[in-house]
Amino acid sequence: MRVLLLVGALGMAAGAAHAAAPATPALNPDLMTVSGRLELPRAEALAGRLRIAAVRVAPTFAKQARLKPEEAQAVVEAAAARSLRNFGYLAGEAVQDAVPVTLELLPAEASFDARGATVTSRLRIYGACLDQTGEGRFRALARERSGGARRALGVASSVAISLATGYGPPTDTFLVSQLELASADNRRRNAERPVAEGEGVAEGFGEAATLKAGAVGAVRMALVDTLRRLHEAPACPAA
Amino acid sequence: MFRKILAALALTALTACASTPNPIAAPARQAMFVKDVALAWDAPEPAEAKPEYLAGKQELQERLEKAVEEAFRLSPAGSEPVVFQIDIKRYSRVGAAMGNLIGGSNMVVADVKVVRPDGQVAGVYQDVTGVFASNGGIIGAVVQAASKPEIEGIMANSFAQNLRARFDAK
What's the confidence (pLDDT) of residue A150? Predict the structure, then answer.
């Protein structure tokens, strides 16, 4: 009976931890979008002239970002369009002589070391009068694990006291509080890690999550470089 | 009977929380980026401020701003700069024994105003909370006293995540 109660309590604790974990969200295009925060120069010669005709995404990106090809396509399309709009490059619907451009996300290169993954991504934007390729590199730091000792203490105390007293697990509150505290402290620890420009901490644990963070960050950095190049590009003649 | 009434009241309260509408429409949120985070302390001071309160207050202010900045560094990713003005209304800090055995909480509650460059307030997220939960009973009190967890850091991060969830809500 005691063992059954203990197993039940541990199951409930695991259930609570599972319920508290957020469902895996769809990839937010914001994570790849270049916002006004970067204070890049706004469009001049190409201001309000570009219209995205097509977006091509290398299959390697979908694989690295753990997305279905159509999801990868949609998220890159959204991030690129919003980045161009943020800095004034996209033509309004009424513009007659907009320049149709194709965006092509080329295959990325990734490498791993003990602390994380570095991904280099290239984004080509081309049309009748322009052909620029931006390059971005992003280093995703592997998410650090912590709290193992606290979790072990919670479980061990719960088991020990339950067995010693002969009752059901009277310390399940303690167990749950230690599991919650370990998770909360781990989130804090990762959120407070210092990162340089072009670096970030992966949202999830493990190599795949780190590579995903690297791939997403590298596209954003490639968009930054593309926007800088577009700013330097000459004006397109009117059609 | 009394329990049933309490349960019904609790469910009603939860439903009310879940259905709080987002004060800023999605297109307006998407057009923004968070340029700055400002903090104001309007929480009433306790009549007799204990050392953990005073030390915690100082540390929380330093960490809260950074936690919110980090949570909103990449998203939203628009072109309109906004400032998050965090107005701390309540702050409570309790010792390990109090929190784990008797009750009371380590908690911060604030209203967050989203302010446009012209000073216009785009919306206010009211009563955003950050909590450090301590309810581990007598063993929890002993462990907390011995392990000294980063209470302010956890509260600040919890606050930033709760604000993020409120901002992203439909």
Answer: 84
Interchain CB contact of A37 with B (< 8 Å): yes
Same-domain pairing of A39 and A86 = yes
* CA dist., res. A33 & res. A122, Å (int): 15
What is the Cα–Cα distance from B26 to A205, expressed in whole angstroms? 30
User: Would you call B36 an interface residue with chain A, using a CB distance cutoff of 8 Å?
Assistant: no
- Residue A33: its chain B contacts at CB < 8 A? 74, 77
Helix axis angle, B137-147 relative to A148-165, nearest 10°? 150
pLDDT of A22 reads: 47
To test the contact with chain B by mutation, choose from A27, A37, A224 the residue with the greatest count of B C-beta atoms within 10 A, namely A37
Chain A residues with CB inside 8 Å of B157's CB?
A: 184, 187-188, 191-192
B161 vs A: CB within 8 A: yes
Q: A171: domain range?
A: 2-20+145-190
Count of structural domains within chain A: 2
Contacts of A35 in chain B (CB under 8 A): 33, 74, 76-79
Residues of the domain holding B38: 2-168
Is A33 in CB contact (< 8 Å) with chain B? yes
- HSE, CB side, 13 Å, CA atoms: give it for residue B150: 20
Q: Examine the domain organization and report whether A136 and A204 are in the same domain.
A: yes
Tell me what pLDDT residue A19 has: 47
Residues in chain A with CB shorter than 8 Å from the CB of B160 are: 191
Average pLDDT across each block of 10 residues of chain B; the chain has 170 residues. List them in order.
53 55 96 97 88 86 94 96 97 75 81 97 97 75 77 93 95
Kindly state whether residues A158 and A213 are assigned to the same domain: no
What are the angstrom distances between the C-alpha of B28 and each of A27, B20, B118, B147? 20, 18, 15, 44
**Residue A148 touches partner B, C-beta closer than 8 Å:** no
**In this structure, what CATH number is given to the domain that contains residue B136?**
3.30.160
Structural domains counted in chain B: 1
What is the rounded average pLDDT of the residues A180-185?
A: 90
